[in-house]
Design a protein that fits this description.
CATH class of chain A: Mainly Alpha
Strand content of chain A: under 5%
Mean pLDDT of chain A: 86
CATH class of chain B: Alpha Beta
Radius of gyration of chain B: 18 Å
Transmembrane segments (chain A): 6-29, 41-74, 80-101, 122-140, 165-196, 208-226, 232-252
Distance between the termini of chain B: 33 Å
Low-confidence stretches of chain A: none
Subcellular location (chain A): Cell membrane; Membrane
Helix content of chain A: over 70%
Protein name (chain A): ABC-3 protein
CATH topology of chain B: Rossmann fold
Largest interface: A-B, 26 and 31 residues
Main location (chain A): membrane
Number of strands of chain B: 9
Keywords (chain A): Membrane, Transmembrane, Transmembrane helix, Transport
Oligomer: heterodimer
């Protein structure tokens, strides 16, 4: 086993674990689609990174944070319908990204490019994913409460709007680190599919959170293996495996 | 010294007036019933006290007041994988943990609402409407609140269960000197359990002791004419 393979497997697993844990919280609020849409907002940033030759992580993150601020502000500071705006925003971002992305990179930007991972990318993705996992674990009660009922969170002395913003920022971080691996189109699947699978079978919050992360890691390892053997993109390989697990989990619904 | 003082409270959404110049105060141990037709601003008033919405005017809580809140309904997906025990321990995450008076344990708080400890392992989605309501009450009292806000206790409970929820509140109130604000549609409940009543129809139409202020004239003013009010006197036994 060569070290590049191992490196990719470790980074992909950490990203998937962070994504799975994040997803389990996101699905508490039926935020799945906001998350999916948000990952598309990263595309123009990825495109700019490719065009001007800087790390796509930075480009993606900048656009994602911008997207988070808009979504959050629309939800809490205006009376505009969030769903509609998110829908417009993300197709707009996708269009801008598609125009900006150099033709030869478009597939990589949309579906991920595992071959392009450098040592720096490896460390960046691994450390940020690890930090996100720690952050989510230490705040998970607060996030859970303010996501399932902002009113109850408020009566417990929390500030649900702030927590929600922090949660969206973490969302943006996960997406930005993951995008290099899965691409913009499939990033949402890292967050949604393992959590949705876990939700079918979990009997408690602890199980739900843990299982989401474990399923994410399994799918990532499988994805990296397949990619290595057959030269697929990692994103689709991940989604195929995680998707299969999801359909199996339906038969084990509690 | 009043535990809660509301003075010239106004709430608007844009041009629309939701609450118009509300003023009242509550002493420790009071049970205030808020009554009024649909859309009269009852829930808005609770949410203002909770600090969930912006308002004009003054809402003063006694120092170190702890608020427990039982919402009318909680919009949970039935398949949410969270157990009652986990749900009740979420409150540790709030400020209640930092206070001097220790919060109840999840088991103790279930005991207060007459649910057995076996409920700790049940998922919220498995509970009946009545059990869920008790769980929400357990959640509200777990941090030993001094003020309990209760949005329409009867909304999801059948008639047989109804009395017990009020009796439960009454018992908690007697035992812990809790101050209670509850929204109710049921005048019988108001006469029976409330020490004060606030009639709301965007503006404050009455405030005082139920037997004194709830005259047929006031009620007609509150709910409009053409409605008959039946008030069954319950003999205390």
């Amino acid at each position: 086993m060569d070290s590049e393979f191992l490196r990719t497997a470790v980074a992909a697993s950490l990203i998937a674990a962070a994504g799975g844990a994040l997803g389990s919280l996101a699905l508490l609020r039926r935020m799945a689609l906001v998350g999916d849409a948000l990952s598309h907002v990263a595309l123009p940033g990825v495109a700019l990174g490719l065009l001007f030759n800087f790390n796509v992580f930075l480009g993606a993150l900048a656009f994602l944070i911008f997207g988070v601020i808009i979504i959050w502000a629309v939800e809490h500071k205006t009376k505009l319908p969030v769903d509609t705006l998110v829908g417009v925003l993300f197709t707009l971002a996708l269009a801008v990204g598609a125009i900006l992305t150099p033709k030869e990179n478009i597939l990589d930007a949309l579906f991920g490019d595992i071959a392009g991972i450098s040592a720096f990318d490896f460390w960046l993705a691994s450390l940020i994913s690890l930090a996100i996992i720690i952050l989510l674990l230490s705040f998970y009660k607060k996030f859970t409460l303010s996501l399932i009922s902002p009113d109850l969170a408020l009566s417990a002395g929390q500030k649900p709007h702030i927590l929600e913003f922090l949660f969206l920022v973490i969302f943006a971080l996960v997406t930005a680190v993951g995008i290099k691996f899965t691409g913009a189109l499939l990033m949402g699947s890292i967050i949604i599919i393992p959590a949705a699978t876990s939700r079918n079978v979990a009997r408690s919050m602890n199980q739900y959170l843990t299982l989401s992360a474990v399923i994410g890691v399994l799918s990532a390892v499988f994805g990296v293996l397949i990619t290595n053997l057959y030269g697929f993109s990692l994103g689709p390989a991940f989604v195929l495996f995680a998707g299969a697990l999801f359909f199996i989990s339906i038969f084990f619904r509690r | 010294m009043p535990i809660l003082e509301v003075k010239n409270l106004n709430v608007r959404y844009g041009e629309q007036i939701i609450l118009d110049n509300i003023s009242f105060d509550l002493e420790k141990g009071d049970a205030l019933a808020i009554i009024g037709p649909n859309g009269s601003g009852k829930t808005t008033l609770l949410r203002a006290i909770l600090g969930a919405i912006s308002f004009e005017g003054k809402i003063t809580l006694v120092e170190n007041a702890r608020i427990g809140y039982v919402p009318q309904k909680i919009d949970l997906a039935r398949d949410l994988p969270i157990t009652v025990g986990e749900f009740l321990s979420l409150k540790d995450a709030g400020k209640s943990a930092a206070r001097q008076t220790p919060a109840y344990s999840p088991k103790e708080s279930l005991n207060l609402v007459n649910l057995s400890p076996m409920f700790l392992k049940k998922r919220l989605g498995e509970l009946s409407a009545g059990e869920l309501q008790r769980t929400l009450i357990a959640w509200a009292v777990i941090g030993r609140p001094s003020l309990l806000l209760f949005d329409e206790p009867t909304a999801s409970v059948d008639v047989a269960g109804q009395e017990t929820v009020y009796e439960l509140l009454h018992r908690l109130q007697d035992k812990y000197g809790l101050t209670l604000i509850l929204i109710s549609h049921d005048l019988t409940i108001v006469y029976r359990y409330a020490s004060k009543v606030l009639c709301l129809n965007k503006a404050q139409l009455c405030f005082g002791i139920p037997a004194e202020v709830l005259t047929p004239g006031e009620l007609t003013k509150l709910y409009g004419g053409g409605r008959k009010f039946y008030h069954h006197m319950h003999s205390e036994n």
